[in-house]
Amino acid sequence: MTCIECPKGCRLAVNIENGRVAKVTGNECPKGEKYAIGEVENPTRIFTSTVLGQGLELKMIPVRTDKAIAKSKIFEAMTQIKRIKISKPLNAGDIIIRNFLGLDVNLIATRKME
Length: 114
Ligand code: SF4
Prior knowledge:
CATH architecture of the largest domain: Roll
CATH class of the largest domain: Alpha Beta
Low-confidence stretches: none
Structural class: alpha+beta
Number of domains: 2
Bound molecules: iron/sulfur cluster
């Protein structure tokens, strides 16, 4: 895999045993090993999507989580946000759902909405 922690983009060779990282080579700093372990053992992503707006300037309001969540939770997140309808004006960064999915992250608006 390619480390994306900095623009250098080191090519990493990752030995995996029983679903766990046994050895990482090719990284030029410790961040590369940490990145490889995370990608193999618990991959996470910032979740980005849209929720429905009612009576606002746009019908779909862009949102994201304020921290990365496990990739395995993405489908659950998609299902959950289909139930959300926003009818009050928002500023970028406003929290739409605190402790989203019980994951200790917040779902926030990413733009101002009148
Ligand atoms: S291993 Fe270190 S130097 Fe290489 S891309 Fe990752 S962060 Fe950058």
